[in-house]
Predict the 3D structure of the following.
Amino acid sequence: MTQRNDLSTNANDLPMNSLLFWLVVLPAVGIIFIGARFIIAPLVGAAGFGVPVDSTDTYAYLWAKGTRDIVSGLFVIVFLWIKVTRQVLSAFLFVVALIPLGDLLNVYINTGMSNITALMIHGGTALYLIVLASVLLKRN
């Protein structure tokens, strides 16, 4: 008798040789890199985020953001590794899209429209994740 994993079924997971698999890996690896940058070079990370800081007093918050980003990316990698269904992966990506939306609001509230590049990156990331999650659901 085979045990069934409710999170994964072989017929409905995302095969590693598919373009869609790599389109999911891309933002996961990207956010892990960004998180590492916040831990290794917090002031550079903050500037890249769109809300630069000028003091090492904020390192604790920047390191917390770096940790959050690394863990978010690792969740996606683990979900792919354990071969969760596309529905589970899609639901996770829809929820994860709230992070760059929150980041967009954070940048806008703190800098207004003065850093349009950061606003576009955060908004574009949220849009990418929403479209990707939608495609994962549609490709069932």
Summary: The CA atoms of residues 93 and 133 lie 6 Å apart. The first helix runs from residue 19 to 40.
